[in-house]
Amino acid sequence: MLSVEVSDIRKRYGDTVALDGVSFNVGKGELFGIIGPDGAGKTTLFRIIATLILADEGTATVEGFDVVKDYKELRKRIGYMPGRFSLYQDLTVEENLSFFASVFGTTIKENYYLIENIYKMLEPFRKRRAGKLSGGMKQKLALCCALIHKPDILYLDEPTTGVDPVSRKEFWEMLKKLQQDGITIIVSTPYMDEAVLCDRIALIKEGRFMTIDTPENIRAGFADELWAVRSDRMHELLYAVRSFRGVDNCYAFGETVHFTTFGDGSFSPDALKDRLRAVGHGDIRLERTRATIEDCYMSLARE
After folding, report:
1. pLDDT in tens, 52-82
2. At a CB cut-off of 8 Å and minimum separation 6, what does 119 contact?
3. I need a surface site. Which of 60, 167, 263, 267 has the fewest CB within 10 A?
4. Cα separations in angstroms, 213 against 16, 29, 145, 184, 201
5. Residue ranges of domains in the chain
6. At what angle do helices 93-103 and 135-147 cross, to 10 degrees?
7. How far apart are CA 80 and CA 46, in angstroms?
8. Which residues pair with 157 in a beta bridge?
9. 120-154 per-position pLDDT tens digit
10. From 3.30.70.2070, 2.60.40.1120, 2.40.380.10, 3.10.20.580, which CATH number describes the 222-302 domain?
């Protein structure tokens, strides 16, 4: 069964195209990721399917309800965690949670089982004002507030942006547990490494979905010859590789440079090593590598 059905959604802000014909489906209980950089249209899409703004064109239904006609009923069934921390900074952890429970006509006690594992980490700070929490604790509080009314579906817009690696890991562990409890989750992130934690992902660029599939299928579909190179002078390496014969798409990838070749036999790894050594790159490590989601994104973005 489908939890979300979106067809040809379009949205403009003046001359800026935010969404350009986005269509996708999400199955019940699925963890679906929308992966792309800032400004790609992720937040606009979330706000449309959360009934907060209207699309210019297209249709969307969530849990069988139309996002325009049935917005009042739908808001009872959605848990939404926006990218920017939007809880009441001057209220304590406990007060924020009680407030959001009362808005939906429930209590913390009634649905405590849903947030118990998360709230246990917050409990030592329950009397602390939300504005004084760390980034990771703010994130956990926001998730508790989004869950307290027992939603059927959870929208998380860049929930791990700006938090430390340990908190990011903990957060995804929490999402997996919520998914096991039957909650459908749609999450957006600019972090390509988080894509592999989703059941399926959509790669978005400039308001368009470039592809939708499982992370493994997207990686398996990368057909180009991909190389990784590292040297002791990384800041000069990118230009040196990019200008070499036979190199096609070349970009920084963490502490390495990734590049594809034209596939016509014009690229020689030994010749590249000789060239790099000739211009002062002493410690060179060059090897074939398997594509990551980020590599797939870079490849699709060029088409």
Report:
1. 999 999 999 999 999 999 999 999 999 999 9
2. 97, 112, 140, 144
3. 263
4. 28, 16, 31, 17, 6
5. 2-219, 222-302
6. 20
7. 9
8. 188
9. 989 999 999 999 998 889 989 999 999 999 999 99
10. 3.30.70.2070
- Integer Cα distance of 215 and 194 in angstroms: 10
Q: What is the 3-state secondary structure (H, E, C) of 158-206?
A: CCCCCCCHHHHHHHHHHHHHHHHCCCEEEEEECCHHHHHHCCEEEEEEC
Specify the CATH superfamily of domain 2-219: P-loop containing nucleotide triphosphate hydrolases (3.40.50.300)
Whose tokens are 């009441």? That residue is: 88
CB 201 within 8 A of CB 42: no
| Beta strand pairing call for 208-213 and 200-205 | antiparallel
Give the H or E element holding residue 219: helix 215-220
Structure confidence by residue, pLDDT tens digits, 231-282: 877 778 998 999 999 999 999 998 899 999 998 989 999 999 999 989 888 7
Q: How far apart are the first and last CA of the chain?
A: 33
d(CA 74, CA 82): 17
Tokens of 295: 């590599």
* C-alpha–C-alpha distance, residues 44 and 28, integer Å: 22
